[in-house]
Amino acid sequence: MQLKPVTTVDSISQAVFKKDFYNSGQPLIIKNLSHDWPAYTKWNWDYFKELVGDQRVPLYNNVKSDAYTPINTADDYKTFGEYIDMIRQGPAGWRIFLFNIFDHAPQLTKDFTWPEHLMKGFVKKYPMLFTGGATSITHMHFDIDMSHILHTQFAGRKRVLLFPYEEQHKLYRKPFEVLSLADFSHYYKGNGTPDYEKFPALKLANGFETILEHGDTLFMPAGYWHHMEYIDSGFAMSLRALQPSLAGKLRGAWNLFGMRSIDTLMKKTVPKWWYENKKKKVFQYAEAELRKNV
Predict the structure, then answer these.
(1) Range with the lowest mean pLDDT among 97-101, 157-161, 181-185?
(2) Domain 2-292 maps to which CATH number in 3.20.20.140, 3.10.180.10, 3.40.50.970, 2.60.120.650?
(3) Rounded to an integer, what distance in angstroms lies between the CA atom of residue 108 and that of residue 106?
């Protein structure tokens, strides 16, 4: 993989953000965007436990999904308070994603400001909290609705690996899914993952890497692939904004209601055939990328 650091700024004007990052589809870290929000100092484990500690939440482990795994199937359930107690005790490879804490504690929406000076189209009904224990992993994927994302880290540190959408075949994207067939776990350690012998096109993939710290806001352009590993137990909030173009909105709608429905149906009816067929195409597409670079 060919990796470079994500551009980092303390603050940025709308004009520069639009020209150099939003319109050109480049990721960016803004250090101080959240520093004026009450959430920057107010949000912590104790506060969340007090507000929503009794809410039952789905938990996800570090095992990658396979041909027989339905999308977003939880591996366990606990109350949010029990989960917080667990990950505070030390490394715990369990995470929560797409938990709309704001449904249960709407007062939290007063603790941050929608950054509409940077971009429009925010889906204000769905700010999302992402929580993970130290060592937990969010495997390589892109967001199915193809929204632009502002992802702000509020506690702990998180290692992030990013690739443009166009790198999908070098990343061994599974057809009709938003996931990579390859495993990027602990990619930075050089311990055999990713497996370049099995997935040689990964060597050609051009991307970015960074570590998010408390208060950092990562701009991920629509369709960006991302793999995240929690260095410390922590949580982050994602604010999503729809693409302004009709084509962008339609692509997201197709992914949500067309592509995912087809994949779910085929996994239920002919899972083995469907998986083998998709796997064959994955390597065919990757081989084509390799031939381009001969």
Answers:
(1) 97-101
(2) 2.60.120.650
(3) 5
